[in-house]
Design goal:
Number of helices: 5
Structural class: mainly alpha
Strand content: under 5%
Helix content: over 70%
Largest sheet: none
Order of helices and strands: HHHHH
Length: about 100
C-alpha cells in the first residue's frame, strides 16, 4: 500500500502533530484488516487519545474534550464499528488542519 499520508505531508508541509494524527489513522486502518478484539482496540484508542491531546494542545483544547465525548458515545458498539467510527472522526479532525 503506498504511503499516501506521507506524500501528502511532504507536499503540503503539514506539521508534526497533524502527521502524528495521520499515523494514528493509518494504524487504525491496518487494524481493520485484522480480527479486532476489544483489548487491541482499547490499546489503539489510548494511542489515539494521546495524539489527539497533543494535537489539541497546539490548536484548541475543545478538540480533545469533543473526542473524549465521542469515545463515550460509541462505547456500546462492537470493536470493529468503534474503530471505523473513530477513524472517521479522526479524519474529520485532520480535515480541520
Amino acid at each position: 500500500m503506498p504511503n499516501y499520508f506521507n506524500s501528502y505531508f511532504n507536499t503540503y508541509g503539514i506539521g508534526n502533530d497533524t502527521n502524528a494524527l495521520f499515523k494514528v489513522i493509518e494504524k487504525g486502518i491496518e487494524l481493520m484488516k485484522s480480527d479486532l478484539q476489544e483489548a487491541l482496540f482499547q490499546s489503539w484508542q489510548e494511542y489515539a487519545k494521546a495524539v489527539v491531546k497533543m494535537y489539541a494542545d497546539n490548536r484548541n483544547s475543545q478538540i480533545y474534550i469533543n473526542y473524549l465525548t465521542f469515545i463515550i458515545s460509541i462505547s456500546g458498539i462492537p470493536p470493529y464499528q468503534k474503530l471505523k467510527s473513530s477513524i472517521e472522526y479522526l479524519m474529520n479532525i485532520a480535515r480541520m488542519s
